UniProtKB/TrEMBL annotation:
<dbReference type="InterPro" id="IPR008977">
    <property type="entry name" value="PHM/PNGase_F_dom_sf"/>
</dbReference>
<dbReference type="GO" id="GO:0005789">
    <property type="term" value="C:endoplasmic reticulum membrane"/>
</dbReference>
<keyword id="KW-0256">Endoplasmic reticulum</keyword>
<feature type="domain" description="DOMON">
    <location>
        <begin position="1"/>
        <end position="67"/>
    </location>
</feature>
<dbReference type="GO" id="GO:0005615">
    <property type="term" value="C:extracellular space"/>
</dbReference>
<dbReference type="GO" id="GO:0006589">
    <property type="term" value="P:octopamine biosynthetic process"/>
</dbReference>
<keyword id="KW-1015">Disulfide bond</keyword>
<keyword id="KW-1133">Transmembrane helix</keyword>
<dbReference type="GO" id="GO:0005507">
    <property type="term" value="F:copper ion binding"/>
</dbReference>
<keyword id="KW-0732">Signal</keyword>
<dbReference type="InterPro" id="IPR036939">
    <property type="entry name" value="Cu2_ascorb_mOase_N_sf"/>
</dbReference>
<dbReference type="GO" id="GO:0042421">
    <property type="term" value="P:norepinephrine biosynthetic process"/>
</dbReference>
<keyword id="KW-0325">Glycoprotein</keyword>
<dbReference type="InterPro" id="IPR000323">
    <property type="entry name" value="Cu2_ascorb_mOase_N"/>
</dbReference>
<dbReference type="InterPro" id="IPR028460">
    <property type="entry name" value="Tbh/DBH"/>
</dbReference>
<protein>
    <submittedName>
        <fullName>MOXD1 protein</fullName>
    </submittedName>
</protein>
<dbReference type="GO" id="GO:0030667">
    <property type="term" value="C:secretory granule membrane"/>
</dbReference>
Amino acid sequence: ATFSFLQDYFTDENRVLKKDPQQDYHLEYAMENSTHTILAFSRELHTCDTNDKSITESTVRVIWAYHHKDMGEAGQNYHGSNRGTKSLRLLNPEKEEVLSASLLHFDLTNKDVPVPDKDTTYWCQMFKIPVQHEKHHVIKVEPLIQKGHENLVHHILLYQCSSNLNDSVLDYGHECYHPNMPDSFLTCETVIFAWAIGGEGFTYPSHVGLSIGTAADPQFVLMEVHYDNPSYTEGLIDNSGLRLIYTPVLRKYDAGVIEAGLWVSLFHNIPPGMPEFVSEGHCTLECLEEALGAERPAGIHVFAVLLHAHLAGRAIRMRHFHNGEEQKLLAYDDEFDFNFQEFQYLKEERTILPGDNLITECHYSTVDRIRMTWVRKVLM
């Protein structure tokens, strides 16, 4: 016979493990073989137990540790180095992968980019979309991060550029936002895709795709890669980028991106030593009226949100107002993790209409800083 045990413990401020008098975790299934121990368990999202953390749509840090021997009479065996953490969203519904056989792909990757030995670098490279003359839908985008560079590549943005450019703009990459960068980069203003560290690939819902191949679609795109090199490592050469998976089988709707948040500027700064500092970005009624009024009077349907901030970020909330009345939060993360940024799929699509308001609320902590902080941040 095999015996399975699952117990509800918590730790105090001295990291001492204590058995919880209110046992809220229930064993559903257990299995062990020569390589794996699997315990499946369930718990109420809110247990009304002060020793338990409520499970919300925010990021959760799961901590794990194990010892090769079972728990003895004397209590737990110390795990040694067999431990770790993982950030995840327990309530983020996973998209079912229903990928058909008629799939094609192309890669947009940097070619031997020398990453400077400085803290932060934004590298820009222009690409031409290889799909021309016929409409297709991109249905999935995957990050192609060079092995070993998982912490170097912080985020990748894809911008649509002017269609009046010629192929000479494809010849070389350059630092973005640099006085000497090519003028052609200035024509690339609309974000069509975003990926950030810790995120997996992004699959569009089954009725939506990113349109490519027609005259109105992006011909030239600019890929902006943000490199984080806080240890000033020299001689790094990077070949990371994105893979776009597409199909000729068209879907009902074309996808786009609406950006909201604080404009990236030196006017946005955070004083040092602040345990809580809130900045708000307002996408005003007038702005959404003008942006959607002519082209999308019936509004746009939001199916996923990417919340993005940098190291001082602690929480982000996307507020939505309709006819002056606040709706349910569009998206939020009260436990923001800089190293885990991925799209949150909304459980139900939300309509944003001309005349609505969006407020991006960014909460920061600079307790451990002695200098002013200037922040680059955008929310998708």
